[in-house]
């Protein structure tokens, strides 16, 4: 097997077409999409309430950052929906869960890595908090804190983005290991910087809209982004050297 799956050159605005395909998948599987999206919306409400009640604004910022880190793993069910649609099948939640169990080892490894990175980021965020004068409401101090925090957070976010951009769709689609998938993802991101910068901007904009709408927008935005990620993987990565996962489900008769 190759050490890394070859990647294709992407047009700068290719992510726009991924987003359009993601929206089509959302419309073709509205029940599964909204089940996932509404579930994450409710979880977001609970986390925001807990942070605001027990920790305040800066804990809320930390939880938002953590959401960005663990989001890719949570999107695995969405990749399965897109895969089933691609195979011409009607998506079933049971089949999505089966595919999740099939990749449990790789998912656990990625989850562990993301958790370690999140803990390091949390530690870095607490160190950044030292630069913010406690009890100060001066706009200059707030801007300084946000600027420093944004730079530090961007470094961690870039690492996670590069590692997960295409790796999780790849293990959903092909019989490969997480290390190969991550290297493939990083390679594709580095070789298509303009297109991936556009994709990153779309994700950030989508999350921002979700947060500004009190998380209501996430019910639609997150599923569409998840489906679009699958189509981005199909567009960018040639994983034909690895065998596809078998589909044990019988064709639907209903």
Describe this structure in words.
- This protein is an all-alpha fold and 254 residues long.
- It has one domain (34-134, 146-236).
- Helices cover 75% and strands 0% of the residues.
- The chain is built from 11 helices and no strands.
- The protein has helices at residues 14-28, 30-54, 57-74, 76-86, 93-102, 104-129, 139-164, 167-173, 178-191, 193-212, 218-236.
- Helix 3 packs antiparallel against helix 6 and helix 4 (76-86) crosses helix 11 (218-236).
- The mean pLDDT is 83.
Average pLDDT rating:
83
Tell me the count of domains: 1
Low-confidence stretches: none
Number of strands: 0
Largest sheet: none
- The general outline is globular
Q: What is the CA-based Rg, rounded?
A: 19 Å
Task: Please identify the structural class as seen in this structure.
Answer: mainly alpha
Strand content: under 5%
Give the helix tally: 11
Helix content: over 70%
Element-level helix/strand string: HHHHHHHHHHH
**N- to C-terminal separation?**
39 Å
Describe this protein with a few key phrases.
single chain; 0% strand; globular; mainly alpha
